[in-house]
Write a structure and sequence with these properties.
14% helix, 11 strands
Length: 156
């Protein structure tokens, strides 16, 4: 069950400040999704600066717009994942290999250490973890152009 919240704001330092219905105030709140890949709208924990949960939200979509927009903006920074639109080239069909891709953030180059770093999420979605620690996503591999699909299939 969701924790009752009175106020959620951003202070002058840009930190999220949460006031609960019982009057307790927490500054520096960090939202953390329970199921970021499989159910991003379900289960959101609001963590204090010392790593303790101070509030739980069952469904983000049920929050008032002013709370939801603040949390979604904070989550967007935490969960930065460029969306791959096309595979431009791969250096080798064995790993490690260097991939050049076009994303919604522009062209990027990264190293894929192993085929195991490509995670199938269902519904044609893929999450690719680069050697540099950044995640890239493919929303629907069937929507990629033919050349991109052929390159990708060599690694799946």
């Amino acid at each position: 069950m969701s924790t009752p919240m009175r106020h959620l704001t951003r202070n002058d330092l840009g930190q999220l400040t949460l006031t609960l219905d019982d009057g307790r105030t927490h500054t520096g709140i960090v939202p953390v999704r329970a199921y970021p890949l499989s159910a991003p709208d379900e289960g959101l924990s609001l963590m204090s600066t010392d790593g303790h949960e101070v509030a739980w939200i069952d469904r983000v979509s049920t929050l008032p717009e002013k709370f939801r927009s603040l949390l979604e903006a904070e989550l967007a920074v935490r969960e930065f994942t460029p969306q791959i639109a096309a595979l431009v080239s791969v250096s080798s069909f064995s790993t490690p290999s260097t991939w050049t891709v076009d994303t919604d953030r522009g062209r990027a180059t990264f190293v894929l250490k192993s085929e195991d770093d490509i995670r199938r999420l269902g519904d044609g979605r893929l999450l690719i973890h680069s050697a540099q620690g950044l995640n890239f996503a493919i929303a629907d591999r069937a929507r990629l152009d033919k050349a991109s699909r052929l390159l990708l299939e060599r690694f799946l």
